[in-house]
Amino acid sequence: MNLFKKPRWHDEILPDLVGTYSGLTVELSGVPCRTAEESNEHRYRFADFGFEFINELHGQLGEFTTVRESLLAKRGISATVNIRDLAPIFVRLTGVPPKSRREYFSDLADAIINAFGKQGLKP
Predict the structure, then answer these.
(1) What is the pLDDT of residues 21-36, one digit of tens each?
(2) Can you give the C-alpha Rg of the chain in angstroms?
(3) Where are the alpha helices (DSSP H) in 43-91?
(4) Organism's domain of life (predicted)?
């Protein structure tokens, strides 16, 4: 293995992802990534992907009270996230709602990180 050889990357869509954290479950479909041809390492499509994804997702899911009511009623909630010129990413959120808005934002981010981590997707 040549330590100075620059990896070649290609764009890919990951298989469906599921992540959980503190009672929340997030299902993701259509998550784009860059994959190294030789090592099969997965990276974000661009540097701010995670930040942009979470910001857009929060806007699509709606206010915390609406999300909380849907989760308490066991209906779950779905969203379609569009970032830049990428294909849509489909999200489904189910599980036990956190008690506070702050916990919700933190737990949702941790569930997404869990889903990304299971597939080895890194910034």
Answers:
(1) 999 999 999 999 999 9
(2) 16
(3) 49-61, 64-72
(4) Bacteria
Beta strand 121-122 pairing with 42-43: parallel
Instruction: State which amino acid sits at residue 86.
Output: L
Number of Cβ atoms within 10 Å of the Cβ of 2: 5
Q: For tokens 């890194």, what's the residue?
A: 122
Residue spans of the domains in the chain: they are: 16-119
8 Å CB contact between 26 and 108: yes
Q: How far apart are CA 21 and CA 36, in angstroms?
A: 28
Q: Is the dihedral of CA 97, 98, 103, 108 positive or negative?
A: negative
DSSP state of 6: P
Taking residue 71's Cβ as centre, other Cβ atoms within 10 Å add up to 20
The answer to whether the predicted template modeling score (pTM) of the entire model surpasses 0.70 is: yes
Q: Is there a contact between 28 and 57 (Cβ–Cβ < 8 Å)?
A: no
Place of tokens 């737990």: 107
Q: Each residue of 22-31: b (16+ CB within 10 Å) or e?
A: eebbbbbebb
